[in-house]
Amino acid sequence: MMGYFEEFFNYLASLTIDQFIRIFWFFLVFELVRFFLLDLGVLIIWKLQHVTRKKRYLLARKMLWAERPLVSIVVPGRNEGEHIFKLANSLKEQTYTNYEFIVVDDGSNDQTRVICNNLKKNGLITLFISNDVRGGKASAANLGLRYSKGKFIIHIDADCSYDRDAVENIIVPFYLDDKLGAVGGDVQVRNYDESLCTTLQAIEYIDTISIGRISQSQLGIYRIISGAFGAFRKEALDRVGGWDIGPGLDGDITVKIRKLGYNIHFEPTAVCQTNVPTTFKALTKQRLRWDKSVVRFRLRKHNDVFFPDKSFRWLNFISFIENITYNIVLNFKWYFYLIDIVWHFASRVLFILPVNYVLYTFYNFFKFVVFSIFRERKSVRDEYFLPFMPLMALYYGYYLRLVRTYAYLQEIFLKRSYEDDWNPAKTSVYAKHMKL
Amino acid sequence: MANQPHIIKHEDLKFQVIGQGHYLVDVDSTAPADALIIEANDEDYARLLVRKIRGHFNPDIYLKPVFLWRASAGTDVLLEHNHDGSISALDQIAQLAEVVKRITLRVSHLDQQAVPSYEGQIVKKVLNYLYTRENRALQPYLDTRSAIGYTFPEMSVNFSEKEEGQLLEILEWAEREGLIWPDFLEKVYQCNSCGSGHLHYREVCPHCDSSNSKSEDLVHHFPCAYLGPISDFKNTIDSTLTCPKCSKSLRHIGIDYDKPSVIHHCNNCDQNFQDANIKSKCLSCQNDVDVKFLVPRHINIYKLTRKGRSAATSGLFASSEAIDDVFGTVNMPTFRIIAHYEVERIKDKAELNASLAMVFVDGVLELYNRLGKKAERKLVEELVNMIRDNIRPMDIIAFETSSTFFVLLPGMDAKAAEEVMNRLATQVTEVLKRNLNEGKLKVTPRVRQLDGLSNAEAQINELSKEFSR
User: Fold this and answer.
1) Residues A3-11: contacts with CB within 8 Å, 24+ apart?
2) Which of A348, A436, B44, B375 lies at a CB distance of 3.0 to 4.6 Å from B371, suitable for a disulfide?
């Protein structure tokens, strides 16, 4: 064993810079440049704009309070009765009070109807509509939209809870930009300490949502308004006809709104907390669904963004290219990287892979610490997550990558997203037929 | 001359004929007749008169055989169950004699002991009537004229149509007393204010209580996930349904669209809702309430129990159970025990004396009938206070019913007790007359000096019997 470590360090010390770049090109070219250097640069600029942004926000907030528009909070859901009570109470605490709370029950077969009717009688729900037959989340959201009266629509998930100023903060950006069609809120993990699985997801959410989306939003390529917490200009939703059949309807509607020429914004001060899957089995199921929708919507339904036509926008084009490159292409390219290493450095694989792992671990650790400077709203102390950082390379680099690969292959070759029981079969069959 | 009683004698029986011109006939004046014949071609008139007769509190009147003189059979449920036969001409009177004799014979079996409690008096009337007519069941019938929607013909005559709600309470009381047993027929809902069953049900908006709303199917178009009211899919040109989101025509329910639910829109307040409130408006008192506040009641066919059949002839009617205790009184079992000790004391020392008094407020049952049970307790409390004001602190009051009070006056002889009671009777009568404008109410006292010859129970019963006589 001691011999291995001696050889390992000798090998590392013998590497020239050229050799290092040749062997670890995947990490250096793609990961480090895109997800650290670029993000860091954007975040620094974003931080430097803090003073001017604060003034603009102050003005926008004044405009919001002067107008005080009605905001419709729409919650579509099935068998979510137990969560609705907590959600209603969390909304009752909001600083912005001119809202209507619309709950659409998508054919629940539990006590949801009884609970919601009771909450409605007690004034905690403005409108409760219950469907006897399940139609899918998109149709339930569309029904909520149909009966909403607000100028802005906030789509939320029933199992989430919200900061006291979340509703106010997610609406303020609309007063900064008339062309803003939608605003995404920050989604943090509430059950971060429930299991190892949830802790790793909490770190992932901090990286990809709390930080990653600030960067995407600044670059103008922000493309997924999370279904857990997103605000929309009613006019924009009406123009796109609301939500289409999922799964992945939140990413889909964001693209539809982008394609109409609206801007999309991420608002890190509008914070919602959600419960994430507690087991890797449940997480795998969730991620398979999410990842399939990337292929379905980016490569198929909305592939028109690659072609120049009257609605062509460079930012949409870049956003898609970036998304496809970093999610789909690089995912497969990683396997080419492995083959490259095995093919050309077969005798050194046992050193290269551990070095790769160490590199990623230091990278993840360093990135987490550096980027935490830019996070303004922390519900958990950063120190809590540091002991788990060595596992992130395994989580990101192997577990999520394998799940993603499997999902992409299933969707590319078998179109499995149309068979997902997340949607009722009666709607999926049409979605597949119409290539939605 | 039209108001003069028309008497026809047959054998030794006197039939009083009441023609249609005798609308205002004084039924009290019919007591001497053995039977009544009512001209009944006008059913409403006959119904009115039969109600007056059967609703009377005098058994000589309400148990009297009543026959209808009419050309054809009638349809009025209450009328049909409260007469003893019909004739088409007065020369058929001979056919009725047997019926009159049979009823009269059965009436003679009855023990006409006064029944002080209101419920008891009504139930006694009904049981007596059923016994004399050889009937063993109270059958309810649908009747729009009845406030509860059902009439129990033999019993409903005791109530005005608006007050029939009380009838069910009394039947429930009789059921609890074991006099009748129920056989379920129907469940009805009564107004929580007046007891009426004449209710108008409406679906109303949960926000503004308006019934001015329209309901629509919700339509889910599968291909594009649009879900909205069917009016969104309609056009003004033809009957096709077109999706407002994707402009496709809806073709086949269950295949490309379905209707997962229904939604209501209030035209008054512009709100949408799915679960309308169901409210009930009482047609009698205008009380408008949520249906959950209505009072559910079982309509049963009531049959006489063995106890009920026995009670019909021997008389057995318990106290007014609604009033359990009134401040300043003891209950009857305690009163009997105290009286027992008093008698034992007198037995021991003959020079000691004590008196027992009973006060009966005659006519008050009809007052309760009119004012309702809520007034009953209030009046009992007032009466107890008035009695208490006229007696010494050491004297004991108990009430057996809401119209019958007992007073034990230790150390007071009958003469002194009589003076006290007479003074009390005069005072109470005047107060009732003045406050309630009830000239018909009469307070009658009876006094008896307790002796050591018989036990207290026997002496209390003896005093009660004096009233019956």
Assistant:
1) A4/A350, A7/A351, A8/A351, A8/A354, A8/A355, A11/A348, A11/A351
2) B375
